[in-house]
Each structure stands twice: as C-alpha cells, then as structure tokens.
C-alpha cells in the first residue's frame, strides 16, 4: 500500500478510536482514498493538430492524452478492445536523468465510457514500476516487462492476480535504451522480442524460454506469413527472409544472408523542420537547411495488417522516427525470397509534424483495423548515458527539457473506409464462431481468435480447423492460422500435414507445413516424407525449396543418404545464392563432416560456398565456438575484469557480449585494431567517441552511426574508464594495458579538432 494511504489511515484510526462509528467511517475513507488513487475520470482536452501533416486521404485524431498519460512507450488492446498503456514516467525527467530509478511507472487501462471515441477514464492496473517497457495480452492475462524481470499476471475484475516471475534475466544488464522489449506473439505461438535472442511460450501451464536470433533495438512486428521485422536507431527497417528459428539449428554456424537484413536501400528522412539530434554537429547528419538527413533514432516499426486502409497499404511498413517528429511509410516487396522495401512517396513522409514534442515511439494495429500511434510526447528522448554535450546544451537552450507530464495516443483513419467496426466480445463466442474469425480480414482479430482457440483447446475445434486447412476456397493466411492453432492445441498430426503437402498450390501454407513436420520425424515416417519432398522440389518454387532445404536435419537422422540427395539437388539449383547455401548448413547440423566427404568424393569445387561454410563450421565445432545465441551471456566477472559490469551495461548492447559486433549496429571488437592497438587511442574513443566510416580487420563499416564518448558523463570516473579498457583488452585481444587513472585524466584533455568526436583519420594521425 502506498505510504500516503498508510499515513492517512493511521490518522483516521486514531481519530475514530474516540467515536462509536469507527468501522463504518474507516470503510468510507478507505474506499474514497483508494478510488482516487486508482481510477481517474476526466475529459480529454481538445488538442490542435494544426502542426501535423498526414498523407492525403488520411485523418489523425487524439484519442487519449494528458492528464491520462505521462510518457507512454507501449500499447496493447485487451479482449474487449480497450487500450492498455505502459507509462515510463521516470525516464529523463531532467537533463541529468536523475530519478530514473524511482518506482513511478504504471500500466493503465484507458476507457471510453460514453462511446465518443475519446478516452475519459483511466484505471491504474499496476503501479510503482521502474522504467517498464512492454506488455502483451496473452493467455488470458498480462505479460509485462520491468527490467530485469518479465512478469505474468492473471486479470480478474481489472486487477492483477497470481503474479508469476517468467524470467528474472529478461533484461539482464544493458542501458535503458538497449534492453529487451516488444513481447510480440507470432503466428507460430511464440513470443518474440526486440534487443533479445530469446523467445517465450506457455505450454500446459509451464513457461518455456529458448534461444532465437538476436533482433533489433526498440520495437518488433510481423507480416501475415509470420516473418519478423525490426530496426535499429540508424536502420529504419530490418527483417528476416525466413520464418523464425528456421535458420539457426546448426549451433556452430551463424547465418548472415537470411537474418537481420536491411530492407531499405537508404535511411533518408524528410522532416518538416529542423530538429535537435544527438550528433547534429557531425558533418552530414544535417543538411544545409539544418534538416536531418538520415534516421538516427528509428524505432517502433509496424507491418499494417488491418482492414480499414486501401489495398495498396496492406502490409506496408510504418516506422517511427521520433527525433524528426515523423512516421515513415515503406512499401514492402514480398514477391521474392529476398525481401525489400522502398519509400512509399518520394521525399514525403506519411505523418510529420513541426511540433518538436511529437515523439512517436510505437505503432499498433487496432481491433478496429486502424492504426494507433504511441506518442511519448517528451522533450528529451535521448538517455543521459549517450547524450552529447552538444545536445545537452541545445535542449537546455530550447526549453525542450521542460516538456514533461504529457503523452498521447493518436488514431489514424482513412477517409474512404466503408467497413463499420463492431466490437467483438471474444469471451462470449463459441468454438465455431472463433474458428470463423480466422477468416477475418483484420490481422488483430485473427491473432486473437487463434489465441483463444488454443486456450480453450476444445475437441470441437479440430474438425472445423481441418476443413479450413483443406478447403479450396479459403485463403492462405487463414490456412496458416488454422495450422498453427491445431499445433498450439497439440492436435496436429503428421497425416494432416501430408495431406496438405500433397494438395495443389497453397505454397506458402506448405512452407509452414514443412517446418511443422520436423516434430514428426521418426523412422516410420521417413520414407513417406522423402517421397513427398521429392515431388515438391519438382514444382521448382523458390520459397518452397528454401524451406525444404533448411528443414531436413531431423529427418536425416534416420536416413541421411536419401536426404543428402535432396540437399544435393537444391543446393546445386541455387549454387550462387548464399541464402540457399546457408539453408543447407542448417540441415547439416551434426552431419557436416559426412556431407563434406560426400562433396569431396564427387569432386565438388573446393571453393564453393557450401564447401567453405562446411569447413568453417567443422572448425568452429572443433573449437567449440558456437553461435553466440547458444552461449550463456552471463559471463562470470573475475578480479581482473571489474569493467565487465560497465561493458555489459553500455558496450555489449551494440558490440555484443561476445565482442562479435551486432549487424547493422556496431562493428566487432574481436580482431579490431582499436582493441589490440594503442591503449591510449582506445581510451580516446571511450572518452570522446568515434564517428564512421571506420575499418576493422580490413573491413569498412559505414553504419551511419556515431559512438558517443563517456568523458562528459559524470557517472563514469577515470577508474571506470580504465576498468572498461582493461576488460576489453583482456577479453578481446592478446594485449594488455599499462594505463593509469592519471593517464585517463590527461587524455580527457586531448580533444578532437572538431570539439565533438574523433574520426578514424584523426585518430590514425595521433602519435600515442
């Protein structure tokens, strides 16, 4: 119970001990006090959006704002279609970032009680949270992230019940800008996250956690097929070419051609006005008109899966760019295995504002088929740990640091939408009605129906689900939902999949069927499945071939020679395509040596892609060098590496806990000349920062991003900087350092000529 309530109750108790009506009046006061703290009913003020410009044909409306919101960062909808928000109240309350450890974050329920489309009531569901960041309505409860923990609570009468700790290491270390978030339930019934390499699922009441590919930084989304999309600060849209966990079965091979691919050819933005960005002083960040050139804080991507926009917007990618006060729209090309995305309208953004406090950080598909934008509406969105002196001064002079206690949810609609939205009461639907909703043209509704069917796990659902899968008239999206619903209910059979795989067309559904069939790999099923796949490769469908080629490992256990034949045929069909060559390595986990001997016997080119990959994988296995997602990232810190704590919090989030770098975010530390070379130059990088392009191990990295220095951050002492250098040197090179704290103090005075951050060229010229 909050301290102020406890104090008031003590006064009440003392006073009414002297009177007869003590118990009645205490009850009255208790109800009044708790109600005032937990529920707020007011009118949302009218807010002008004259400073906002949206694409022709669309409208924006403020559906929730202050006083109901303070720094919202995430949104989800419950079964009744109500908005639930995560408010990170404690984030950057001033330029020094003090108070970020205060337990003032909340998860709230926002309601529209008079049905005018505007929130007029707020219920605090959970309070006293420290920098919460994500929620998901799953399993008839709420999953929420409050670092370092991931929690699940049941919901009863809009109150939390039976709180369960799902993962105490959900956000183990890392700065607030670099901690896991997202909690996206995908079509495969697994929950995925950004800035994380783990996924979660509850099965038979038990929470499961297993490795997955590392993805993005802030925000994650999916398409109707089930592929995942995300981004980093400087890359507006990244994505996987394949379904989750279909390319990482070989623990000693790390795929590079299919996961975490940049889908946009450039990162350009087109703001309406000059905006303050963290490294605005760096050449090329701003143009001659002081407008931002490329994204620097991209986040909250969304693939639109609603039904209220014109068909040309279906599965478009929307991306938040809060530093420039805008939202981008990209058209995603799904026609090839290698996905791509391009600016929808040249030089024009979907939504942009001259309001400097418009800070879109997340976008959601709504139950009504429209888009909902989470506007943090804070003046300062750059965390103190990475804030440059340039930005600190500019924010102070502009007064943006005084914009606090605000937040908004914007609803985006289209003028020509003809579909009327009727709220669906999922709790009152029977099994057959839920199955029918898998045909709905709004992805949010289909997702919710799938989850509800799995929760009920009724035998009544099996027959209608199978009818959907085998129907000639039902679309592929519905069939995929039905497949994974049966699988989530543990009612899917091998014969169901065989029937589907031997049917005509529906290649996208067959891709999922091939992936799902791996769980049925037995000696008895092997011959039948091999014959089925042989027929499928005769179709010569590139997408289908990719999933066949990547999904054979379980089956090869029982008859590797037969399945090696399939790998031979498909790897030769796509001999010059790295995507397919990597897929073959996924299927050869545990069989690398056998297959390499097979290739050598057939005189296959020793320099072919698959041969090189096999040799590298065999070498990694001999060294026990696994894909980092399978390695325990809780490295034990010994007395020589006290800088590990700081490294893990700040450096590992970009460079990787294993020092191998993070694709599209930061170069590796292993084999880096910056680590193995001069300790003083490494210290200068840590103190004053470094901007690209740079070269590491003869490879150029031009990531449109600048590493900020820690020299102006009062949280880091000379000893801290020295400890980090010692840890990095010890962990990622064979060299050590003889620097002292006095050396660090002196190096603080060795400033870049620009007065901002070092360039590689400038560092190389220094004689240190």
Automatic annotation (TrEMBL):
Transmembrane ranges, per UniProt, are: none
Q: Name one Pfam family in it.
A: Cytochrom_C
Q: Which residues form the Cytochrome c domain?
A: 638-732
A molecular function (GO) term: heme binding
Q: Which domain of life is it from?
A: Bacteria
Q: Which UniProt keywords apply?
A: Heme, Iron, Metal-binding
Q: Which InterPro entries did the record assign?
A: 6-blade_b-propeller_TolB-like, ARM-like, ARM-type_fold, Cyt_c-like_dom, Cyt_c-like_dom_sf, DUF7133, Quinoprot_gluc/sorb_DH_b-prop
**What is the name of this protein?**
C-type cytochrome
């Amino acid at each position: 119970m909050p301290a102020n309530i406890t104090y008031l109750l003590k006064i009440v108790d003392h006073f009414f001990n002297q009177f007869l009506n003590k118990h009645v009046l205490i009850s009255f006061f208790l109800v009044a006090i708790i109600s005032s703290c937990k529920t707020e009913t007011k009118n949302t003020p009218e807010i002008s959006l004259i400073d906002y410009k949206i694409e022709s044909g669309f409208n924006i409306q403020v559906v929730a704002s202050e006083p109901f919101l303070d720094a919202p960062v995430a949104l989800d909808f419950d079964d009744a279609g109500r908005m639930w928000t995560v408010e990170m109240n404690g984030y950057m309350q001033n330029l020094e970032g003090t108070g970020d450890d205060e337990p003032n974050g909340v998860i709230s329920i926002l309601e529209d009680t008079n049905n005018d489309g505007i929130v007029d009531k707020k219920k605090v569901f959970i309070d006293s949270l420290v920098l919460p960041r994500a929620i998901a309505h799953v399993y008839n409860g709420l999953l929420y992230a409050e670092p370092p923990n991931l929690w699940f609570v049941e919901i009863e009468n809009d109150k939390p019940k039976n709180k369960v700790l799902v993962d105490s290491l959900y956000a183990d270390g890392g700065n607030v800008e670099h901690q896991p978030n997202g909690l996206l339930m995908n079509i495969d019934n697994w929950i995925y996250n950004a800035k994380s390499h783990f996924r979660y699922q509850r099965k038979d009441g038990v929470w499961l956690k297993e490795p997955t590919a590392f993805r993005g930084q802030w925000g994650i989304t999916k398409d109707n097929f089930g592929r995942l999309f995300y981004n980093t600060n400087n890359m507006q849209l990244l994505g996987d070419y394949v379904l989750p966990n279909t390319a990482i079965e070989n623990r000693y091979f790390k795929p590079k051609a299919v996961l975490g691919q940049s889908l946009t050819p450039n990162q350009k933005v087109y703001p309406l006005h000059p905006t303050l960005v963290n490294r605005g002083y760096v050449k090329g960040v701003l143009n001659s008109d002081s407008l931002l050139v490329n994204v620097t804080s991209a986040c909250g991507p969304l693939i639109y899966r609603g039904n209220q926009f014109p068909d040309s917007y279906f599965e478009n990618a929307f991306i938040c760019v809060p530093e420039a006060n805008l939202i981008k729209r990209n058209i995603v090309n799904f026609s090839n295995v290698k996905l791509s995305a391009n600016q929808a309208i040249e030089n024009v953004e979907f939504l942009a504002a001259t309001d400097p406090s418009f800070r879109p950080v997340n976008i959601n598909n709504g139950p009504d088929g429209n888009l909902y934008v989470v506007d943090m509406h804070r003046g300062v969105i750059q965390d103190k740990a990475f804030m440059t002196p340039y930005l600190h001064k500019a924010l102070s002079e502009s007064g943006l640091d005084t914009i606090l206690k605000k937040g908004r949810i914007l609803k985006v609609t289209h003028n020509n939408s003809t579909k009327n939205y009727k709220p669906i009461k999922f709790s009152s639907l029977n099994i057959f009605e839920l199955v029918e909703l898998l045909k709905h043209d709004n992805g949010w509704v289909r997702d919710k129906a799938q989850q509800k069917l799995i929760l009920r796990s009724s035998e009544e659902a099996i027959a209608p689900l199978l009818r959907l899968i085998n129907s000639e008239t039902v679309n592929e999206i519905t069939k995929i939902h039905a497949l994974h619903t049966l699988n989530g209910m543990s009612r899917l059979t091998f014969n169901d999949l065989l029937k589907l795989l031997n049917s005509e067309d529906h290649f996208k559904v067959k891709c999922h069927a091939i992936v799902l069939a791996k769980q049925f790999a037995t000696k008895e099923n092997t011959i039948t499945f091999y014959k089925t796949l042989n027929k499928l490769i005769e179709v010569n469908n590139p997408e289908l071939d990719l999933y066949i080629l990547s999904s054979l490992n379980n089956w090869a256990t029982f008859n590797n020679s037969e399945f090696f034949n399939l790998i031979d045929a498909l790897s030769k069909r796509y001999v010059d395509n790295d995507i397919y060559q990597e897929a073959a390595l996924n299927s050869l986990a545990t069989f690398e040596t056998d297959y390499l001997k097979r290739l050598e016997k057939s005189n296959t080119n020793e320099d072919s892609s698959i041969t090189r990959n096999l040799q590298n994988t065999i070498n990694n296995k001999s060294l026990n060098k696994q894909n980092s997602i399978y390695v325990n990232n809780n490295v034990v810190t010994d007395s020589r590496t006290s800088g590990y704590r700081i490294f893990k919090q700040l450096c590992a989030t970009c460079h990787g806990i294993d020092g191998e770098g993070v694709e599209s975010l930061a170069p590796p530390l292993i084999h880096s000349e910056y680590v193995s070379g001069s300790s003083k130059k490494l210290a200068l990088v840590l103190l004053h920062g470094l901007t690209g392009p740079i070269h590491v191990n003869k490879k150029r990295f031009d990531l449109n991003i600048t590493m900020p220095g820690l020299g102006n951050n009062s949280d880091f002492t000379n000893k801290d900087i020295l400890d980090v250098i010692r840890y990095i040197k010890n962990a990622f090179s064979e060299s050590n350092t003889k620097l002292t704290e006095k050396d660090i103090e002196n190096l603080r005075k060795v400033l870049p000529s620009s007065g901002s951050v070092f360039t590689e060229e400038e560092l190389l010229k220094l004689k240190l």
